[in-house]
Structures
1.
Amino acid sequence: MRRKVGISILSFVLVLPLVAAAPPLIADVPVPTGFMSQCLPTSVHGLVSEEISAERVRRQKANRNATFAAFSAVPYRLSILSFVYDREVAAGEAADENEMNDAINEIMSAHPGAELSTRGTATLPISGVSTEAEVALFFWNSEGTEYGSFLWLVPRQTHYLKLRVTYTRPKGDQGKSMEFVRESTYSVARAICSAR
């Protein structure tokens, strides 16, 4: 059963100004005629665009025709991965639930001791358009460092958009780290070229 996550719970309450200049875009992966897809930015103001190896691009494309972009920032060791990959046209709510559960299980497996703090729905400003998304928030400790990670999943007609946002949570500074994560996540979401 899904529940609506109040924006205040996730501390995603501020609306940020649009990035003034439109970023250059990664060309979309080829899709069959008549199908819509999304494109991802190659740069986002205030974030570092991470270089992606040709081998990783090839592996992602082989996995459900995925394309992705990666961004980072020094504060809070922020890492944002954004993915667009195929979704069955006939997929419904049950398939979307399975997709989210699979993504949650991947994160829990990759980070032993991780805690799923909250899960539900919230909105992201995809291309500046408020768009409903599934969201989950995780916390874990690794070698004395506290981490947080948001998982966002946006089902579209023919594809999924997924964002994975990971950051550190210094003691006494959790509010500032969350604010930085919110601003950065919204900047990436606004730079994605389509909300459809």
2.
Amino acid sequence: MNYDILQQASSPQANKIMRVKMLMAEGVAEHADHTVTAFRIGIDRVITKSVPVGFKGYLFARIELGQADWGKHEILIRCVDPNGVDVFPAVGDQQDFPNGSKVVNVVTVVVADFKTEGTYRFSVSIDGQEKDDWPFTVQVKPEGTE
């Protein structure tokens, strides 16, 4: 009897369901060891004098994996406006989550023109299932208002 297989099958990690958490940062610095430092983590709004307004940010998706999640998956990032219309074409890629992986971090550069005031929504889907979203508000405050 193969004890390793039994141990893997009964471990909490083996039965864990994929979980995804997203957050937005306004800037990053890349390091030689393949890590990043993020600036203004958690940014969820832009306050502007008028629209349209351009924005550049970094969307982070932390994907926690179980043994059943190892292998190839299609990841898709979307952003929709307050009316549910795509702000830019969905960005996607196939990722291979190697055997033994417990966490995979995906960083996507976001460059968007927000044409109207309101709450936009970024989302990440894996294999066609939405896993998490990040609301992002565009607020217009004309010059001279508090």
3.
Amino acid sequence: MHRIGSCSALRVLFVGLVVALGTCCDAQLQAGLTAGYRYCSLKESGSEWITGGTHGTTPYWSDYEQRSTGFGPMIGAFCTFFGDAKLACSVEVLFGNRSTGTSHENIFGSTFDTTWNIALIEVPLSVKLRLAKGFRLGLGGGPVFISSYDYHAKAVIHYTTQGVPMTEVSEEHVTSKAGMAAIAVDVHVGLSYQMKNGLVIQARYLYDATDLNNDPLVNDRFGMVELSVGYTLFGKRTEP
């Protein structure tokens, strides 16, 4: 499930775009719109209390790690300032989804299927160094604001009671973002190419520098590959 936005998030995006475009009277600035898709990889690690129960084991703490992957769309606006021919700085306001899903089986044969769908606003800040005509290497980071959170889990639990094999199916659906951090920080590295017609093609890798989960026993961090195409509406359409 992909959801592009709430009204408040779109208002923030619109205000950011207006501010960016309003500053483009300077010939060394460019601003426009961008859209793309991201490949998301979520790494979750933590500790869980294994109660034993019908398995006949002694309760104990167990460390775990699981990964899930998926795709999500993004839309937004960008503004780039060209300091000189070699150096540029840019700011973007991106709204989109981070969506992943995974399935794993534990030592008792129980299976767990989980899906994540997090809607958020990202504000990447980048320093862009010119490598060749049209090509720039971007380095930076920025805040991530989580606007909504949707988590769905389905468990098929296998256990034995009094020697008789049993199967139990359980489901959980959580839409509250109380367990997620309201703001996080990510870092990124990428490559962009500016075409003569005002198009900007960009690819980059982002990684969460801070934990997205408020639970002290759980650590959730995304790694993402983003591909996007932007179009310059105001300011410079070519590099200086």
4.
Amino acid sequence: MNEGRFDEWLQSILESDVEAVGPETEAAATPHGAQDMETDEPGTNAQGDISRAPPAADKKVRPIQMGEWRRKWVSRRLLALQSNDIGKVMTAMRQLGVGTPGGAEALAIFHQLVYDQWQRGQLARPLARVKVDETNCFGRLEWPAVRAASAETLPKHHAVTCWKHTAVSAVEQPGVAAAPKDRGAEQGDVDGPLECSVTLGVVASRTKHALHAEQRSGALPWVSVSEGEVQAAVAEFDERSSRVSEWEAVAPSSRRDERGTITTDPRHEIQRLGGITDFWYLDDGDYLCDPRLVARLLNLHDVKDDEVGGKRNRPKTEVIYYADAETLQAHAEEWQLETVRSLASIRTPDEASPTLGVAIGSLATVSQQLEQKAKVISAMQSRVAVCQDVQTEHVLNRQSLESAGLTTSCASTVTGCFKQTR
């Protein structure tokens, strides 16, 4: 098949009748030859190629990572064909882990700047940062939820998702028989980050909208007490709710504007005076919100998370209050700190764990981590010389920088140094 015909075939998958594709009709979404690629039975297909054969006894591999190389090749091309839609949806979700080069660095620098603002006393009001930690997120998400999220947010990808879900995959561990499974966003798969992101994007948008609905009803406070500003916030919420209804009434495949650009769920938008926004890097989520909303936010997130098969790791979820000890004690009851402690771990800004592997805090803290990583990388690179090949050594040396996260740490350190010298 030449390149032109191959692209036509891939485009036909994206333009298939995704409305008719679902759990009951998944086989209809399977293109010619896909059954050969996805079969779990050992042996060969009609062309004599090995398809999903179990690994040799002395080699342990994840089939989703190594055993489906042909589907991975097709999936990469499909993702490229819908890159414009993916970029629009990820931007709306504030998801920096898919299609955003330097997303990790951007988030690390952003949170370092927030810390610097707090340290200089320039935050307008107390602020809470909720670092959400999901328990085995890629492995827990249920396939019906992944399909539903794909259909709602990226309808062209829905057929691809259903195509993959026509057959179970397997969990493999040394010394343990392979266990079949029919859930998970398949960490290591080409489509895994995207499918995990859209599913969690649905969780986050539904969580925030439910919280704003309680603000609208008066059960939770808005950020402002000004009657005029509150009325404006209520009017904005009502207008957005109307647009959500209109958006949901349109078939997913038809949700495009006059220029053909995909339209996204209005619930991803930031609510005026709602006191909350969110940022994500794959399954690592951050909510920035008014401290008064933290307890209810965590409860609502858990409810929406459970609907897709997810589960939040409570001990590892951190709530960082950008407030001094006196302020924290004075507002303990208003901010429901006892309830929050039962839902997550409470930290001060200087006690927070690293963000995406990068220390956030004082210049001394950030510099110390940078020095530690530099020593690790030096040790790694000193052993690369055994290759005795310039090109191989160059590639491995670059990979050592990325594996240790030095680039992100450098960016954060430079930001701190710049702020200190101003």
